[in-house]
From TrEMBL:
Sorted UniProt keywords: ATP-binding, Cytoplasm, Ligase, Nucleotide-binding, Pantothenate biosynthesis
Lineage: Bacteria, Pseudomonadati, Pseudomonadota, Gammaproteobacteria, Lysobacterales
Note: The reaction proceeds by a bi uni uni bi ping pong mechanism.
Organism: Fulvimonas yonginensis
Active-site positions on this chain: 37 (proton donor)
NCBIfam families xrefs: panC (TIGR00018)
Entry's family note: Belongs to the pantothenate synthetase family.
Protein name: Pantothenate synthetase
Pfam families for this protein: Pantoate_ligase
Amino acid sequence: MQTVQDAAGLRAAVRGWRGQGQTVGFVPTMGNLHEGHHSLIRLARARADRVVASVFVNPTQFGPGEDFERYPRTLAQDQAGLAELGCDLLFAPDVATLYPFGAAQSVRVHVPGITDTLEGAHRPGHFDGVATVVCKLFNLVQPDVAVFGQKDFQQLKVIERMVRDLALPVKVVPAPTLRAPDGLALSSRNQYLSEAERALAPQIHQTLQKMRELRLEKGHAWRVIEQAAVATLQRAGFQPDYAVIRRAEDLAEPADDERQGLVALIAARLGTTRLIDNLPFD
Ligand SMILES: Nc1ncnc2c1ncn2[C@@H]1O[C@H](COP(=O)(O)OP(=O)(O)OP(=O)(O)O)[C@@H](O)[C@H]1O
Ligand SMILES: CC(C)(CO)[C@@H](O)C(=O)[O-]
Ligand code: BAL
């Protein structure tokens, strides 16, 4: 596996493959790779002849006071894992490569509507940063398919919308969420948790399962379920930003009698760590 930092090296490799009629799959990440990321690489390998992964901790998607500085950077370890999985190329650019005019002067991609709620509401500007960097990465890599985890459910919807609206020639492939045996969704941020917090963290997934059961099996009203979920999380020691049931398609509030195509989503803090997770009902 080659590692390249610059656009020219990346383009040369991709051009070579394309010249041989090969397709390209792409997995964008912020590094500190775990089994969840590895499952995305495997999926990309199944869908394309060649696989490119990127590792870039994107400054424009972090708000003031968020964990940009302390986000774990483990490139050598990431490289070894990717090589073992048969990834063909790791693109690990620096900030100047992706933001030649500086982050503050960058062209911005804004996806309206769906970014106003949930993560977008709690992390203002976050999705502008994500859409902007993913658009830049797509232009650099020019993949046929790109794999995104359902763990970042709203992010996946934002990217799907951007791709459709800008008519980008890439197929977005969703990948299921990988979990620890106790149900906690794998995430680079799990390592911020103390032992006591780690023991509590699976309650997020348990609460999501309860929300699904109350809606689909017991037929409770979604607003009542949301209130109960917030109270449960607070009692357990979390500070929830939200615990909601939404339409999976567009993350809008469902109608009172709606039961199909729903998803429960939670964002909650445990100490200084902010965790997100979700559970599609279908
Ligand atoms: N547990 C998981 N299962 C499947 N995909 C995942 C999982 N965790 C992350 N991903 C996906 O990997 C890609 C890169 O995500 P990212 O590098 O932010 O990983 P992360 O571990 O979720 O980090 P963070 O702590 O920032 O949430 C995204 O498409 C994301 O949805
Ligand atoms: C898609 C992404 C790599 C963009 O920086 C990031 O938001 C992530 O890791 O999910
Ligand atoms: N996993 C999405 C990237 C972020 O939290 O900034």
